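User: Teach me something about this protein's shape.
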Amino acid sequence: MKKVIVIAGVIVAIIAAGFIGLRFYTKSFSPEGLALYDKNGVEIEVVYGRPFKKDRTIFGGLVPYNEVWRTGANEATVFTTNVDLSIGDQELKAGSYSLFTIPDQTSWQIIFNKNIPGWGVNMSGKANRDPSSDAVVIEVASIETQNLFEQFTIDFEQMHNEIDMIMMWDKTLVVVPMAAKN
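Assistant: First, the predicted structure itself:
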């Protein structure tokens, strides 16, 4: 009996090591990124996977149009704010959310979801999102640029009282305007 327990323990350890190795292997292709905004008592953080273009067709190809995208790679993208935000005409309460998008050729739906799944996609390869847990969904224009962004990037810029979350990849740029609630 003791021999069976030892063998089972070794098998479990090998499987666990395999999963850990696979996780590090996939992250080597899309390293983890961190976008930070920290001014005037407003702290916003986005933790996300940063895939590379690698001569692929990104939007309308790797990332299909009109389908939910996990907005990055690997784990779900996590958006955290320490203050309530106005996003469009909606309010996003302070807290952490998963960030999903639905890209289109001329606009994107930006989705802040209350659930944060461990991985960005489910076993069928679809975004791991529960629409009933959406906190804020807004639509913003997408901009085609002359510049090529090889690696998916999220950044923040401030314009007067507005905080812009900017997403860039391939030749696409998307700006999500937000402001701290007073």
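Now, about its shape. Helices lie at 2-29. The chain has one helix and nine strands. If you'd like, I can walk through any region in more detail.
User: That's plenty for now, thanks!
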